[in-house]
Amino acid sequence: MVNKPGKASILAAQDDWNIQLDSHGRLKHFLTIEGLGSEILNNILDTAESFANINEQSVKKVPLLRGKTIVNLFFEASTRTRTTFELAAKRLSADVLNINISTSATSKGETLLDTLRNIQAMQCDMFIVRHNDSGAAHHIARNVSPDISVINAGDGRHAHPTQAMLDMFTIRRSKGHDFGKLRVAIVGDLMHSRVARSQIHALNTLNTGEVRVIGPKTLIPMGIENMGVTVYNDMAAGIKDADVVIMLRLQKERMQGALLPSEQEFYAMYGLSREKLRHAKADAIVMHPGPINRGVEIETAVADGPQSVILKQVTYGISIRMAVMSMVLGREAQSDSRPADEAKA
Amino acid sequence: MKGQGHLHIRNATLINPANSKTDTGDVFIVKGKIAALKTPPAGFAAEQTLDAGGLSLIPGIVDICARLREPGAVHKADIASECAAASAAGITTLCCPPDTDPVIDEPAVVELIHHNARLAARSRVLVLGALSHSLKGERLSEMWALKNAGCIGVSNARAPVINTQVLRRAYAYAANCKLTVFIEPDDHWLSAQGCAHEGSVATRLGLQGIPVSAETSALARSLELIAETGVRAHFGRLSSANSVAMIRRAKQDGLNITADVSAHQLHLNENDISSFNSVFHVLPPLRSQRDMEALRRGVTDGTIDIICSDHQPHDADAKQQPFPGAAPGVSALDTLLPLVLALVDAGELELHTAIRALTCRPAELLGINAGTLEAGANADLCLFEHNCDWQLDENTIQSRGKNSPFIGWNFRNRVKHTIINGALVYSVS
Question: Are B93 and B46 in a shared domain?
Fold first, then answer.
């Protein structure tokens, strides 16, 4: 067969995938968990561990990224993610610029790449990007100048890798380093969730014993079992003996698309009540990427209850984002400065 | 077109899809027609001689779906640029769907396109009229007026006709005007917002899926209405194994229908979109490997009659977007013949079947005197070289649209000369 790509283009295709890593195999961009090995994921978790200690001290600042400029480029509204990225950057002594661009503004004329080139011209080192199109972070990483790193803060339904890593960090701190003995259940709107996709990749890369996804047929995307999960449509069966229960946010607009009849019915079938939680292991932890819809996907008594680690997730989000930013931007200085040492200095 | 003298093509390998014969010989062209094969007709005096030793000669390719972007989007391409690109690709007749801007729903637009195509003096351009006014699916277009202006069929392109009563009446009215209806089956509600085949690849990438049922449910609805109204119908751009099976069954039931597939659907599948490369964003979407193989089998067994380019040239900005927001479609004139012949070289498709799907079958559908190597036929011809290695890159693409997913691919067949109406309009430099 002659009509196959030539060698050059096969390599180009691989480059498309390996765009996250530099020629030494270190993290240059952080766009998706997919394709990263457990070594890199554990490295992020270990680095975050050292930053978690800093974050518990009274002076929560290290000079690792002094002189670096980080741009929060949000094409989609966000409070929590943008704030924790900003805080993480500031604790690393970087300068932070927040730019919120509604996608309607870009559709009025300026293309996404024009916007990028303009901001790029301001000499910055890193873009933290959130965009409502799947693949937007890859698109941006492929088109920025080579000295700029891109971190994906959520692209469409595709990926939200820092959220997934802070979730892994939360699980590791609660349940220990061995993911092999854990049964993790992810519940709710899998269809529209970038968080779930990144969690699934991360859990499987870290060799989690069993990953289950639970939701109604209208919110479970076709072929998701090929990502290495078991699909359950029944909540009680799905969370039975789970060590970790991750609830996903349900957007109100799902009622309009005929995906669900009502929030009440969703809550009755899939909402995490104290009663349903009894099917999980007694020491199971309950997680949620936020913001929570109380009474829609989770009962208040569970969200605020002893098994909930939801607020810890937010706290750990800062450490994880500090870890990723320092790994990505600190590549040239990586060999001679460990974050923990810097903190003691 | 100029040059309607006597043209002598010597020593070509003549591939005649109309009778599945291949032999070596000469072709004698007089005043735009094939005058004779093998031996010169009486009084023949060659004004021009073309030595075609080592080249294969086929009837000029008839491409039944190519967007020329004029009127409405001349920043992407225009009739002159795309007719030149088509002639360089051995395509001697193009058929343009009605979703231009303004829509081809009145004679003036038909005339504008015909006029500019005449000025371009390259490939012939045929036009499909709109099935509904402004393609809105609400009122009938003036099909009789469109037919008299030269439209060879009617179509609603990919625009939906949501109201089934309107669709039924449009088919009946087209039958009344003796116009063929060209259908791109798509259920608007099932495909809305989608940009990829619903399946594990789209799920992994977080892209909104388009289920196979978006195509098959629309196809089933149209088949029922065709049977009831008796309209002559053609189904275009099939993408799924299930659609091929439905067309096969309907043909066995005696329905007067034909079908086509675009060449890229025979080579690509959902796995190709894995790196979010927006050049692979097409509609209908690239489906599974199984679907792609079923489409190839459909061509082989004749269920699918025609292979077209589904040419959709774009400017760079239209594709420089994240995958879902990028404009769908590929620039496909340049690769139509090379892609089809690559399947022949790979043993996936028989040579005459392949050439038939590019020439005489579409010519029959459009009702034009083309697609055969016989005395009396229009001298629209394509000569190509076999066994020449070349690689497609942006610079070799003749179309103004550089949005080809096949950039970097190596091909073995290349068009060397194109003759339209007896005139040599293209020779490779």
Answer: no
| Whether B39 and B138 share a structural domain | no
> Would you give the distance in Å from CA A171 to the centre of its chain?
14
pLDDT band at A340 (very low <50, low <70, confident <90, very high): very low
Does the structure show a pLDDT above 70 at A335? no
Which chain A residues are within 8 Å of B412, Cβ to Cβ? 2-3
Looking at residue A17, its pLDDT comes to: 56
**B36, B102: one domain:** no
Count of alpha carbons within 13 angstroms of residue B109, beta-carbon side: 25
pLDDT of residue A10: 42
CATH architecture designation of domain A161-313: 3-Layer(aba) Sandwich (3.40)
Does residue B127 form part of some domain?
yes
Tell me how close the Cα of A195 comes to any Cα of chain B, in angstroms: 11
Active-site hit among A32, A47, A81, A84: A81
Is B212 within the bounds of a domain?
Answer: yes
Cα(B14)–Cα(B16) distance, rounded to whole angstroms?
6
Q: Under CATH, which number does the domain A7-159+316-344 receive?
A: 3.40.50.1370
| pTM of structure | 0.92
Residue labelled with tokens 């290495």: A228
Name the residue among A2, A4, A223 with its Cβ closest to that of B199.
A223
Q: Taking the alpha carbons of B75, B76, B79, B81 in that order, is the dihedral positive or negative? A: positive
B289 and B409 part of one domain: no
> CATH no. for residue B403?
2.30.40.10
Contacts of B204 in chain A (CB under 8 A): 34, 197, 223, 226-227
The residues in A 97-156 lying below 8 A from B, measured between CB atoms, are 111-113, 131, 133-136, 138-139, 143, 155-156
- Tell how far CA A111 is from the center of its chain: 26
Of the candidates A168, A134, A140, the one whose C-alpha atom is nearest the C-alpha of residue A154 is A134
In whole angstroms, how far apart are CA B273 and each of A32, A156, A184, B67, B277?
16, 16, 30, 23, 6
B324 and chain A: CB distance < 8 Å anywhere? yes
CA closest to A112 among chain B residues: B321
Q: Domain of B417? A: 6-57+378-427
The burial of B11, by beta-carbon neighbours within 10 Å (0-12 exposed, 13-18 middle, 19 or more buried), is given as middle
Predicted confidence (pLDDT) per residue in A133-187, tens digit = 999 999 999 999 999 999 999 999 999 999 999 999 999 999 999 999 999 999 9
Mutation site, A1, A3, A110, interface B, largest B CB count within 10 A: A3
pLDDT band at A103 (very low <50, low <70, confident <90, very high): low
